[in-house]
Amino acid sequence: MNILLKRVLDRLVRTGNLKVTGPKGATVVFGDGSGEPVHMHIKTAHAERAITFDPMLAVPESYMDGELDILEGGVLGVMRIAFQNMGSGGIDATWSKAIEGLRHAFRRLQQINTASRSRRNVQRHYDLSGDLYRLFLDEDMQYSCAYFEQPDMTLDEAQAAKKRHIAAKLRLKAGQTVLDIGSGWGGLGLYLAKAFDVDVQGVTLSTEQHGVATDRAHAQGLESRVHFELKDYRELNERFDRIVSVGMFEHVGVNHYRTFFDKSATLLKPDGVMLLHTIGRSGVPWATSAFIRKYIFPGGYIPALSEVMPAIEKSGLVVTDVEILRLHYADTLKHWGERFAANRDKAKAIYDERFCRMWEFYLAASEAAFRWQDLVIFQIQIAKKNDTLPMSRDYMAKCEKALEMRDMGHRETAPVKKSPAARPARRRKVADQE
């Protein structure tokens, strides 16, 4: 191991039990020996140099390329040691702080998400094969944070609870119109239409998601009430009683928050209600992970609440409720990671080994960020007028309970149905992202 990397790790790893084997076979131990052991093998001099100068990007890249193996503890263990040592005199005193500071300073340049760029960014992630997502998502293909009302819930149960939790905050009534910005695989829109007898328009920039969601609406006989479009929300002109957006705001970019809420204000009727569900930071604004921005979510950004609220205020909208969901996404990602691992061979048949290693790192590092960093979920309820919603939150709990009873009844009486036929799997190579 080179001397500079050893010094960096000596300063970084104050707690934990980390063993690192270098390209020449020598093994060095870092930390105080506490906790579960983690053992990394840096296999090439190239990876060793890269990790020395930019560990937050070079570790995942080296892992993807097979130049780094994790012999014990897994990716989650590596990230646990890294995150738990941040701010304790370790990484804050290293070269990495300067690199991450520069990324934060230039974050706005990385998030000029025009309509055309937004479409390209979405295609990089959400237009991956739907067959891949079926390997690790729940039955309804909810690709966002679940809501674990009880810690022993299954993933499917927690995703159903998430839909009820969101629906209750929308205060829906039969016959209303609902806009779903970033409608994903269609599950939430279909649920709202069935549970409340409302008309739903979903918009997405993902061709793959649009195709699957449209097929699902037809399969469930809801095509007259739920309509999905390949369209940017900025192109819409209709007005809606309700707007919901789940897991899309992370792709808006800090430069475009004012545009997002100004447009939402014009799309919302005078007595309208909006529910925004997004990943956020409980701490101060900071840069997107270099690995996530380069390989997973180009153009993405996780906001602090202090960055979101001013844009809402300037749009003329009224914030009526804010809830912070802590650790729910960590548990969701844990389920996804376990399911992906169980189906790894199938994922490799669709893509390749490098993709599987990239996806493993993405899921585990994301779980770690929700467990040991400052990532949380914001659920922000918004209205056009101050008196649109009841003065207490009791209506939310009552609605959730009623929906839970309804869902239980449907599960007990519904005939067994086969899932819609999956589209033919296709093997793709994922090119290096610039």
Account of the protein in words:
The protein is α/β, with parallel strands linked by helices and 434 residues long. It has 17 helices and eleven strands. Strands 7-6-5-8-9-11-10 form a seven-stranded mixed β-sheet, sandwiched between helices. Strands 2-1-3-4 form a four-stranded mixed β-sheet. Helix 3 packs antiparallel against helix 16 (353-372) and helix 8 crosses helix 17. The protein is elongated and about 70 Å long. Mean pLDDT is 89; it is low at 88-95 and 416-434.
Question: Secondary-structure element sequence?
Answer: HEEEHHEHHHHHEHEHEEHEHHEHHHEH
Strand content: 15-25%
Structural Rg: 22 Å
What is the percent of helical residues? Answer: 40-55%
| Strands, total number | 11
- The poorly predicted ranges are 88-95, 416-434
| C-alpha end-to-end distance | 29 Å
Counting DSSP H or I runs of 4 or more residues, the number of helices is 17
What general form does the structure show?
elongated
Mean pLDDT: 89
Strands ordered across the widest β-sheet: 7-6-5-8-9-11-10
Structural class: alpha/beta
Main β-sheet, in a few words? Answer: 7 strands, mixed
Enzyme class: transferase
Biased composition (Basic residues): 424-434
Region (Disordered): 408-434
EC number: 2.1.1.-
